[in-house]
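Subject: Protein record for review, amino acid sequence with backbone structure tokens
Concerning: The relation between a protein's sequence and the shape of its backbone.
How to read it: Take the token row as a discrete description of the fold.
Enclosed: The protein record, placed directly beneath this head.
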Amino acid sequence: MRTFATWLFLLALVAVLRPAPAQAEVCQDGELVIRFAHVVAARGHPKGEMATALAARVNAEMDGKACMRVYPNSELFDDNAVMEALLMGEVQIAAPSLSKFEAYTLKYRLFDLPFLFEDMAAVNAFAYGSKGRELLRAMEDVGFVGLGYLFNGLKQFSATTPLLVPQDAQGLAFRVQPSAVAVAMIEALGGTARRLPFKDVFAALERGVVDGQENTWSNIYTQRFFQVQNGVSETNHQLLAYLALTSKEWLDGLEPAVRIQFLSIFSEVLDSFNARAEAINARSRQKIIEAGGTVRQLTPEERRAWVEAMKPVWDQFRDRIGQDMIDAALAANGAG
């Protein structure tokens, strides 16, 4: 039987061995503490690297006024819990994927429409245009302020079997984000959609809970999804973007000079990393190949078949998203 002293020793040992946050910034007395919680790796991922770079600049340029701590890999909160944590003041910055906001607004379903954007140049043209900026304010009535979009890139499909034409997905179970559009997309392919937290995807693939998934190159590489899949098909079918946001109460409560400086730094870092997102994904794609993973490029005919299979999905969500938003997104193709 363990004594009380033994239990105390074991508890202390656990505390010592528990991994520390990747960004363990020591804040000074009197500094404004800004906590940024996210769910991805601190390195090799656009969001993780952006958060780390943002903290470095805030801690250097706002030293004595503000201190930022970053908590990656769901160390503090996952994307399902972080929204409430923002309103409670337990974190100040989060950047969930846009599909996480369906409980607050359906407008962000726009970004989930399959094959809406031709490339990342079109994404940027829309996001920095009037309609994209209008969407940043879509949740102000429930207490959230959008600070800007952080782009990961376009998504690819993978599965336990090669995926070259839509019929290859029939009967397979795919992990999707909590997005009604994503569910409809998989069902249009004749598959089954299963909503799972990001942190559970690798285990679900490894154990056969799901047969496949859809994600960006950086996620597929950093989370090792390619290791438990037959290959990755380069479909570029859907955008994965995050909305960096905070609570309106917290932002409005900052001293004006502090708020202006913080928002200026945030905007500069965000723009810089959005410009680098394509390069990060290109490197991740190459690393998958170098690690022995299979990447399948579709022929133009094969890709057109995927587009045709997913066309009906648009009609299901057109009214809730708004035709004006869809038109603005389509107009961005070729305008980047």
